[in-house]
Write a structure and sequence with these properties.
With 265 residues, the chain is an all-beta fold. Helix content is 0%, strand content 48%.
């Protein structure tokens, strides 16, 4: 999102409401310093520890952390014969992550001889997020991926009239929702549990958002016996940026519609 996705200026479909043109190739790269210390742990060992990481913003792709080669635990990585080619960055070489008996094949990649248009990639390498057991942004564990400085979450108190309906059945209604605005996404309305008119049953589904935290989900049980799995979700322990939505519920499902001041969203 932000710069490189949805309608960001480096996305495949940049906004038309501007008085400038972003010239250059359709697929754009922008590398910027990441201002904090980042560590990755694997099998009880720190395999990445950098204060000089960079985020590569790339059209239609989430920002990717690249770190200087000297900030890797070189003994934990073994070169492989695997290679890939990117027309915008060059030929990538790969290394396997190995600590003790644990192995992740081709977990790390680098561009030792990048394209002439991206020479600044030389000397940097990137580790797949899923390859590590845990990542830390300074001393706080990072969830999902590092946060993008061009992506934000804002939560505001609102007096809008919000109704969540399944057909003509009222699922929830509030005149004091919390409105959550997140870069590149539609507004979401988080309601108090007291605003929910129908029973909710917890499910085992969980998701992770780097900006809001770990989400839990609920099934909505309709009076006619139908169930709408994972139609409601919330953040029991949200991250500080979204702390106001603690214990609140948001709804989204193909069989639900949400009206705000009488208008569908």
């Amino acid at each position: 999102m932000a710069l490189t996705r949805t309608d960001g200026p480096l996305s495949p479909r940049p906004p038309q409401t501007v008085n400038y043109d972003v010239t250059g190739p359709a697929h754009k790269l922008l590398m910027q310093p990441f201002p904090r210390r980042v560590r990755a742990e694997f099998a009880g060992r720190t395999v990445v520890d950098t204060r000089n990481g960079v985020l590569l913003h790339e059209t239609a792709i989430l920002p990717q952390l690249y770190v200087p080669e000297e900030d890797l635990d070189a003994a934990a990585f073994e070169p492989t014969d695997h290679t890939t080619h990117c027309p915008f960055k060059g030929d990538a070489t790969y290394r396997t992550l190995k600590v003790g008996d644990r192995v992740v094949d081709n977990a790390l990649w680098a561009y030792p001889d990048p394209t002439p248009t991206a020479p600044w990639l030389a000397g940097y390498a990137a580790l797949y997020w899923s390859a590590a057991d845990a990542w830390y942004d300074e001393d706080e564990q990072a969830l999902g991926h590092l946060t993008d400085p061009y992506h934000r979450v804002d939560v505001r108190r609102s007096s809008r009239h919000v109704q969540v309906l399944a057909g003509d059945t009222l699922v929830a209604e509030s005149r004091s929702p919390l409105l959550l605005s997140e870069t590149g996404l539609p507004n979401r309305y988080y309601l108090s549990p007291d605003d929910v008119a129908l029973p909710l049953s917890p499910t085992t589904t969980q998701t992770v958002c780097p900006y809001k935290g770990e989400a839990s989900y609920w099934t909505v049980r309709l009076p006619d016996g139908r169930e709408l799995p994972d139609a409601g979700w919330g953040y029991p322990k949200p991250l500080p940026e979204a702390g106001a939505i603690v214990e609140r519920v948001c709804f989204l499902h193909d069989d639900l519609r949400t009206l705000v001041d009488g208008e569908p969203i």
